[in-house]
Design brief:
single chain; globular
Length: about 130
């Protein structure tokens, strides 16, 4: 009898699911992309926050889906900073599926594999338009 080890992708997805479980209660959207900014993971909280289902969002370019045309440079700079320094955070206006806009606080970080190679980016975002209740 042989023991099957999870593939790298299965381990990565399990890790994202564990992180998502910890963050969903805080209403933080969890979004993962590959190094080119194509969405590979879209949490239930991201569905609630932005309006697109996972099926609609996965495979889309994060900048095209959420970032308004006038803020494309800011979005590109955020991705570049994440790739160069390992993280980025800030606030900017994003587009929701229903056509409304929302000020979002976004924190991005690199996802690395077991040998330290960058394999993607993980973003956490929350609605920053209204003050949070204490």
């Amino acid at each position: 009898m042989s023991i099957q080890r999870p593939t790298e992708d299965q381990a990565h997805q399990a890790s994202l699911a564990d992180l998502e479980d910890l963050l969903v209660k805080g209403d933080a959207a969890v979004i993962a992309t590959d190094l080119d900014g194509m969405i590979t993971h879209w949490s239930v909280a991201a569905e609630r926050l932005y309006g697109w289902s996972g099926d609609e969002a996965i495979g889309s370019a994060i900048l095209e889906l959420l970032v308004m045309r006038r803020d494309q440079t800011l979005g590109e700079d955020a991705i570049d900073s994440t790739l160069e320094t390992g993280s980025w955070e800030g606030k900017y206006e994003v587009r929701c599926k229903d056509g409304t806009f929302m000020l979002a606080f976004v924190r991005g970080t690199l996802i690395k594999d077991d040998v330290g190679r960058s394999v993607g980016m993980l973003g956490l975002s929350m609605d920053a338009t209204a003050p949070r209740a204490a």
